[in-house]
Design goal:
The structure holds 2 protein chains of 2 kinds. Chain A contains 13 helices and 17 strands. Chain A is α/β, with parallel strands linked by helices. Classes of the chains: A alpha/beta, B alpha+beta. The complex binds pyridoxal-5'-phosphate.
């Protein structure tokens, strides 16, 4: 493995660890500010994938030959890496999924169908990504439960009074995002979890926008379920994680049926494998798990203290600079902000902002960010969003601002 | 390389800033609602058809510069045309937007609409240029229809 430049001492060189960043688009150096959609991959991750496919590729848990042993060892070592990363008690609590969406669907299906019934309530917030909203809508429709959505205020923060008021003895599960992908809001999830536990509800936290930017300790949070997607954490696409409290996962029925998740099978009936295999039917994304572990090793080596300090500085500069752009309005001004900024510009559609920025080499996201209720809340059809990663620098912010000035000149 | 000035031509910027035929059409005989869920663009096209001729047409909605200018220029292009002619123009317009970028566009056949030839270099934006047209088609063929482009 190459020792990356990205170490705690010098994040300004981390960019060199990411081959995709070393290219030009439209004749300009790429300024990649769409990290909330997906991050670029460090060489260490790409090499882990290549190494796995070139040397260890085999199916897991089913062969006695050397390659199968290596593949199984790599896959299970990845599970241990994720366990340590989240500070879970046991590897039995770490389920590999395709992405965050599948992890949430697993819980909504398995936990939901078993423990949520007619008249029960499921609580979500008005700032959820569609993937942490639609599965709960589907669950409620299936079992006759009621979905309650906690509103947000103008700053884009959760209405804490409404949250407290909505919790009750019928609340079975609360699904809340750790960091909003459309507003940047960091939710006080530890407090929300404590409040929900007081009424006996369980809590699922969507950590998709959190895990690349801050340390997460599921035990300190006292989370019942914590999900994230690998590709926003410098890992490959197609791999995600569900952390679940062991007692809960144990009590839950399987999600998908098939190979790998059974203990015994007759033509009439089957019994289920132990955790975590019970929830991993079929051949998993072995290389994906190994790549994700390499990504976790990469960020762990740099350390979240350094990552968070660096990103805060870059994001603060971005917020400051964007406020100076004429006719620009920030969408979401939370007191605690993650590594992204959403905005609109007077009389200019976000699509045009995105296309013009792209022509300057600056990649940002425009659209509704899979959070249409938030767009409705602010009365905008879409926003532009700049989202940052550990490799972004102050100069990237400057390039963004220059691009927005060009937008203003062209469209204003 | 895709050239921004090919996309945002002066005519497009002008129609974006001052869209023509923008507003309600109280005596419309047909209308349709167009929506691009991917970007949140919405357009409503309303027309008054008499004897198979589009006598009046207006649009409302919100969208990017390309979609707004396209709606605006479309209303100018189809007014006083027969319904069948308008539909045929849409077919040709759509075909033009999907011809390879190297190929020249018959500027005469398209009149002002030729200005959208530059959109070909921005495949992600072709839908912006056709949303109003899809909506017009829905209005003409199926009064009160709703279309989505995805
Ligand atoms: C907050 C949040 N939750 C969930 C997701 C879904 O991630 P995935 O599409 O990888 O399942 C995303 C990313 O788009 C997100 O930003």
């Amino acid at each position: 493995m190459t020792e990356g430049a990205g170490t705690a001492r010098d994040l300004s060189l981390a960019r060199a660890d990411f081959p995709a960043l070393a290219q030009q688009v439209h004749g300009r150096p790429l300024v990649y500010l769409d990290n909330a959609a997906t991050s670029q991959k460090p060489r260490a991750v790409i090499e882990a994938l290549v190494h796995y496919y070139e040397r260890d590729n085999a199916n897991v848990h089913r062969g006695v030959h050397v390659l199968s042993e290596r593949a199984t060892a790599g896959y299970e070592a990845a599970r241990e890496t994720v366990r340590a990363f989240l500070n879970a008690r046991s590897v039995a609590e770490i389920i590999f999924t395709r992405n965050a969406t599948e992890a949430i669907n697993l819980v909504a299906r398995s936990y939901g169908d078993a423990f949520v019934g007619p008249g029960d309530e499921v609580v979500v917030t008005a700032m959820e990504h569609h993937s942490n909203l639609v599965p709960w809508q589907q669950l409620c429709a299936r079992v006759g439960a009621t979905l309650r959505a906690v509103p947000i205020d103008d700053r884009g923060e959760l209405d804490r009074e409404a949250f407290a008021a909505v919790l009750g003895e019928r609340t079975r599960i609360v699904a809340v995002t750790h960091v909003s992908n459309a507003l940047g809001t960091v939710n006080p999830v530890a407090e929300l979890i404590a409040e929900a536990h007081r009424v006996g509800a369980h809590v699922l936290v969507d950590g998709s926008q959190a895990v690349a930017h801050m340390p997460v300790d599921v035990r300190a949070l006292d989370a019942d379920f914590y999900v994230f997607t690998g590709h926003k954490l410098y890992g490959p696409t197609g791999i995600g994680v569900l952390y679940g409290r062991e007692t809960l996962l144990d009590a839950m029925p399987p999600f998908l049926g098939g190979g790998d998740m059974i203990r015994t099978v007759t033509l009439e009936a089957s019994t289920w494998a132990d955790l975590p295999n019970k929830f991993e039917a079929g051949t998993p994304h072995i290389a994906g798990a190994i790549g994700l572990a390499a990504a976790i090793d990469y960020v762990t080596r740099i350390g979240f203290e350094a990552i968070a300090a660096h990103e805060h500085e870059v994001v603060a500069r971005a917020v400051e600079a964007l406020r100076q752009v004429e006719g620009l309005r920030l969408i979401g001004e939370p007191r605690e902000r993650g590594s992204l900024v959403s905005f609109v510009m007077d009389g200019i559609h976000p699509h045009d902002i995105g296309t013009i920025a792209d022509s300057e080499g600056v990649a940002i996201r425009t659209g509704h960010h899979c959070a249409q209720p938030i767009m409705d809340r602010y009365g905008v059809p879409a926003t532009a969003r700049a989202s940052f990663a550990l490799y972004n620098q102050a100069s990237d912010v400057d390039a963004l601002v220059r691009a927005l000035e060009r937008v203003r000149r062209l469209m204003g | 390389m895709s050239d921004l000035s090919e996309l945002y031509q002066d005519l497009i910027l002008d129609h974006n800033r001052r869209p023509r035929n923008f507003g309600e059409l109280p005596d419309a005989t047909c209308h349709a609602d167009g929506h691009n869920p991917l970007c949140g663009d919405r357009v409503v096209v309303a027309a008054r058809i008499e004897d198979g001729i589009i006598r009046d047409i207006r649009f409302t909605g919100s969208g990017c510069a390309i979609s707004k200018a396209s709606a605006s220029l479309m209303t100018e292009a189809v007014r006083e045309r027969r319904v069948a002619e308008a539909l045929e123009l849409f077919d040709r317009f759509q075909a033009m937007l999907t011809t390879p970028t190297g190929q020249p566009v018959d500027a005469e056949a398209f009149g002002k609409l030729a200005v959208f030839a530059g959109v070909r270099e921005f495949p992600m934006r072709v839908k912006c240029a056709t949303l109003a047209w899809h909506t017009l088609k829905a209005a003409l063929l199926q009064p009160g229809g709703v279309v989505r482009t995805e």
